[in-house]
């Protein structure tokens, strides 16, 4: 009984701490991310100057770029305690024990498939041909292929869901309205995916709605991983 009371107190403490994350934390994190990204880009440019421009470009756009960006994101999570507490609170792996979660994940996957079909195949608003990540995959082999798969199927989805749904959505939704958090994080998600801007915005809405419905960041992470794996192995 005492353990249950202690556990409830810990949950209450986490909830109280997560609500402290206001606009000052929001803008601090954004500016820190921009600063870290600029530093990473400068260091990459220096490496490119020493080696070759093509090598620097591959670092920024390929699987290595995914890992570098993930390092920036998770460094920020470690650096800001309020962000770290909020992310931990939002994961909720317990949601994966509920059958309804997998129903919503399957429904979300179907929505992503329809979005992809309409944007790429039917209306042809977007194309996969110019995506540097896809081009890198076709030229990769051996351990580079494994590295690429880990980056796109595991690292990328975890990093992006932590950044867009775990942080951006939660702050804006808590401080303004859930709709503002949903569409704000989705638009930024689309901006970060210039190869598929419209599809990415709509996909961001799907991921955000899944997070809203399940109240767990684990659900959109799993959907994101599944979708990336499907796209990779179906092309």
TrEMBL record:
Residues 143-229 form the CAAX prenyl protease 2/Lysostaphin resistance protein A-like domain. One of its GO terms (biological process) is proteolysis. Keywords: Hydrolase, Protease. The keyword Protease applies. One of its GO terms (molecular function) is endopeptidase activity. Coiled coil: none annotated. InterPro entries: CAAX_protease (IPR052710), Rce1/LyrA-like_dom (IPR003675). This is CAAX amino terminal protease self-immunity.
